[in-house]
UniProtKB/TrEMBL annotation, chain A:
<keyword id="KW-0067">ATP-binding</keyword>
<dbReference type="InterPro" id="IPR003593">
    <property type="entry name" value="AAA+_ATPase"/>
</dbReference>
<keyword id="KW-0547">Nucleotide-binding</keyword>
<feature type="domain" description="ABC transporter">
    <location>
        <begin position="2"/>
        <end position="236"/>
    </location>
</feature>
<dbReference type="InterPro" id="IPR003439">
    <property type="entry name" value="ABC_transporter-like_ATP-bd"/>
</dbReference>
<dbReference type="InterPro" id="IPR046342">
    <property type="entry name" value="CBS_dom_sf"/>
</dbReference>
<feature type="domain" description="CBS">
    <location>
        <begin position="264"/>
        <end position="315"/>
    </location>
</feature>
<dbReference type="InterPro" id="IPR017871">
    <property type="entry name" value="ABC_transporter-like_CS"/>
</dbReference>
<dbReference type="GO" id="GO:0016887">
    <property type="term" value="F:ATP hydrolysis activity"/>
</dbReference>
From TrEMBL, chain B:
<keyword id="KW-1133">Transmembrane helix</keyword>
<keyword id="KW-0813">Transport</keyword>
<dbReference type="InterPro" id="IPR051204">
    <property type="entry name" value="ABC_transp_perm/SBD"/>
</dbReference>
<dbReference type="Pfam" id="PF00528">
    <property type="entry name" value="BPD_transp_1"/>
</dbReference>
<feature type="transmembrane region" description="Helical">
    <location>
        <begin position="139"/>
        <end position="161"/>
    </location>
</feature>
<feature type="transmembrane region" description="Helical">
    <location>
        <begin position="181"/>
        <end position="200"/>
    </location>
</feature>
<protein>
    <submittedName>
        <fullName>Osmoprotectant transport system permease protein</fullName>
    </submittedName>
</protein>
<comment type="similarity">
    <text>Belongs to the binding-protein-dependent transport system permease family.</text>
</comment>
<keyword id="KW-0812">Transmembrane</keyword>
């Protein structure tokens, strides 16, 4: 758990972070979102003491971070940054092994861990372990960056616009990947982005920041349904809200279940039960159909969702 | 192996000439028909070469803010004639390129790399030794290369104030109007500079191979 209590950061006369209070529960993904210069990166960098805070208290698992050794503190916090920050003179495997080596793990354990992480991040260890960062694509390099941050199994993960420099498709893939990994490892994550869609997709709770203050700290759904101010309303896109809410909603919630599961009819478009309601609506609109069949992870048709139901309860 | 060939060949030529300058007597006699002794005999070239190198060595760790002759003029009253003032001049002269390149090398690092190194829990010493120096090493090495090469030439000026270097035959030749002497000294100094320079070139290339595999991998 990370707690920020009345934290302020000044750069000379300017106040970058203005008396914020924020509690990040263990295992949740807190996304700090706002335009550039709103203090979100500053907040993140105060948590691992890359920047000292001017006033207030920051507690990690109940302990004041100023009383801890900064290196020890950081070794227990994975850190992923926009430019990847991979070390160009080290191979992929050596980059991932950085923190375990600093912690002086035995070699076999490091090798096993590197192998495990590369597999988790969908990087073929055989093909990539001995490459250098310059030989990787942007998406691969950022996967290595994430693997490096997870290497010593830290309790906390800090991510500073990690996918900001990637193209849309790669970014989307990595976001899905991150959701999958997060389901497996459950790290307390602080994620900084300026992209509200990314925030809505990844967050368990979002903190909207502007001019060094936190305007609203709530679940994605509440942020969309009940924005606390005009700024938040504009940020989430006033008129786009309906569709954004639909993308938070899973098909499972709005479908009508069959009594027994059955094989889907071949050649008909289907949605999976954990797809978003927005996707179901898109298929219904595109095909001009009244309903679309829903399948489970095994490919069995377990129900259907109607156009009417989507219209009523999607958002 | 190929990259080490030029420094090896040049080193062989340098040593060979230092020992066997006599064999070139007909050539120098043709150059300087009016002189009896066309090969410099006061000291052996090998001795002068041996004396030249340690002087350069002092320098490899180090400035170039003053013209060397000005430094010599200032240092001689304080330190007397001999090797001490030239060492001072070489240190001052060799320092600047190394310092400048070290700073440039460290400043030229991708800030994200340093940020990541610190943010992942490296201590400042670990960041310097494991990340900054290896990455800036190539540029620092280039500074040492410039410095040493310049200093080989500068060390020869030391002969004007009584240091025994390969500059001796050059000075002696200039004083006596014996072009052959000047040439012998100059050839050896030139070769020494070329040898050292190509050695550094080779070191730099092997460094590149290890550190930027993308350049050579394909």
């Amino acid at each position: 758990m990370i707690e920020l209590k009345n934290v302020t950061r000044r750069f000379g006369e300017t106040v970058a972070v203005d008396n914020i209070n924020l509690t990040i529960e263990t295992g949740e993904v807190c996304v700090l979102v706002g335009s550039s210069g709103c203090g979100k990166s500053t907040t993140l960098r105060m948590i691992n003491r890359l920047l000292p805070h001017s006033e207030g208290e920051i507690l990690v698992d109940g302990e004041d971070i100023t009383t801890m050794n900064p290196e020890q503190l950081r070794l227990n916090m994975g850190y992923v940054i926009q430019g990847t920050g991979l070390f160009p003179h080290w191979t992929v495997a050596r980059n991932i092994a950085m923190v375990p080596r600093l912690l002086k793990w035995p070699k076999e354990r490091i090798d096993a861990r590197v192998h495990e992480l590369m597999t988790l991040l969908d990087l073929d260890p055989q093909a990539h372990a001995h490459k250098y960062p310059q030989q990787l694509s942007g998406g691969q390099a950022q996967r290595v960056g994430v693997a490096r941050a997870l290497a010593a199994d830290p309790n906390i993960l800090l991510m500073d616009e990690p996918f900001g420099a990637l193209d849309a498709i790669t970014r989307e893939n990595l976001q899905l990947e991150m959701l999958r990994i997060q389901r497996q490892v459950r790290k307390t994550t602080v994620f900084v982005t300026h992209d509200i869609d990314e925030a809505l997709k990844l967050a368990t709770r979002i903190a909207v920041m502007d001019q060094g203050r936190i305007l609203q700290h709530d679940t994605p759904e509440n942020i969309l349904r009940d924005p606390s101010s005009e700024f938040v309303e504009n940020l989430v896109g006033k008129q786009d809200r309906g569709l954004k809410l639909m993308s938070l909603q899973s098909v499972r919630k709005v479908m009508t279940a069959h009594r027994d599961s059955r094989h889907p009819e071949p050649g008909v478009d289907t949605v999976r039960e954990d797809d978003s309601a927005r996707l179901a609506l898109s298929i219904v609109l595109w095909q001009g159909a009244e309903q679309v069949p829903v399948v489970n992870a095994d490919g069995q048709e377990i129900g259907f969702v109607t156009r009417e139901r989507l219209m009523q309860g999607g958002a | 192996m190929r990259i080490w060939l030029p420094p090896l060949l040049l080193a062989l030529l340098l040593c060979g000439l230092s020992v066997g300058m006599d064999t070139l007597q007909p050539l120098f006699q043709w150059l300087q028909p009016d002189k009896q002794g066309v090969i410099y005999k006061r000291e052996s070239f090998l001795f002068l070469l041996q004396n030249h190198l340690p002087l350069v060595n002092q320098v490899a760790s180090i400035g170039q803010t003053f013209p060397p002759v000005a430094v010599l003029a200032l240092a001689v009253p304080a330190l007397g004639f001999g090797e001490a003032p030239i060492v001072v001049a070489l240190i001052l002269y060799g320092l600047l390129p190394i310092l400048r390149n070290t700073l440039a090398g460290l400043e030229g690092l991708d800030p994200a790399v340093r940020e990541a190194a610190r943010g992942m829990g490296m201590s400042p010493m670990q960041v310097l030794l494991q990340v900054e120096l290896p990455l800036a090493g190539r540029v620092i090495l280039a500074g040492i290369r410039t410095s040493v090469t310049i200093n080989i030439a500068t060390a020869a000026i030391g002969s004007t104030i009584g240091a025994r270097t390969l500059g001796d035959p050059v000075i002696a030749g200039l004083v006596n109007g014996n072009t052959a002497y000047v040439l012998q000294g100059a050839i050896l100094i030139g070769l020494l500079a070329l040898t050292t320079d190509s050695l550094f070139e080779a070191i730099q290339r092997s460094w590149d191979r290890r550190l930027s595999p993308s350049v050579t991998a394909s």
